[in-house]
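Hi Y.,

Following your request, here is the sequence exactly as I used it, all 347 residues.
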Amino acid sequence: MSVATRTMKAAVAHDFGDIRIEEMEIPTPGPGEALVRVRACGICSGDVTPWYIRKKCPIVMGHEPAGEIVETGALVTRFSVGDRVFFHHHAPCGTCHHCRRGNHSMCRAWRESRIHPGGAAQYVLVPRTNLEKDTLLLPDGMSWSDGTLIEPLACVVRAFHRAGLGAGDRVAVMGLGVMGQMMVRLARHLGAETILGSDLVPYRLEQGLESGLDRAVDVTTESFPEAVREATGGEGADVVLVCPTGPQAILEGMECAGRGSKVLMFMGPEPGTLLTLDMNRIYFDEIDLVSSYSCGPEDTREALRLIAQGVVTSRHVVTHRFPLEQVQEACDLTAQARDSLKVVLDL
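Below is the corresponding structure, written out as tokens. Let me know if you'd prefer a different format.
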């Protein structure tokens, strides 16, 4: 298979648990576009969330890719054939009301943009807007696996900005999958005073301690809110980062929250999910419930810097690698959410 043949392999999700390797045409870049030979692509939790993936099927999976530019259109000047790049699957217009306020993931152009056909393909077409607004050169020596971490780490970066997390904060991280591990490492890097994390998987609790937790709480045997109160002199956390979805997770996060705190919802629940909260406590304790969806160009650039500095790297969080042909196995492992963190496809 070569570019000359104009055919390639791609992982196409037809349903949850039904991913097929299919042959398709290699896209041809237009004047302002680029064609990238994908070298690695991370598996995201969204790729293994039934309600989320089913509404998009059939779809070529993958939105955490890194690769090498092999063709450019005549109008492309910032990039050249041979450049090693990260490219974001969404790109904002940069001029609308939401972009001017820094809320790039609320931009209509951002939500409508995409890469073609998807990151889990041997070749990907990067449209002009994505190429100009959020395609980044990888530093010399940065691995392809490190490149796949830019998008997920950028989501953590944006979440921290939304939560106002900084030095001296007491932080509670609920859920210690790959995103929770990144949160712990970044919170420690930013100078958090105390960091507690919770999970029900022993492996992930152990990894959380290696990532920098002061205490890892097994929620099958302990109450996380009680542990947080105990560790903070009864005050509660300043920032609670909730990775699991669903009302119960948010309610437990509220129990961990101290006065004047922020509780951040990091993952999207299924449509129609309802939540009942104690409004009296929210008001008198001034607790902010905020959400953080995806990331923008400033976040990806900050994530790239953090990876280059060694704050979060593939050595810390990539636990398994699979060839494209084993994408179903890679997704099954991710969905199990047990003795793994980030799973990466090598293409």
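The chain is about 35% helix and 25% strand.

Thanks again,
Q.
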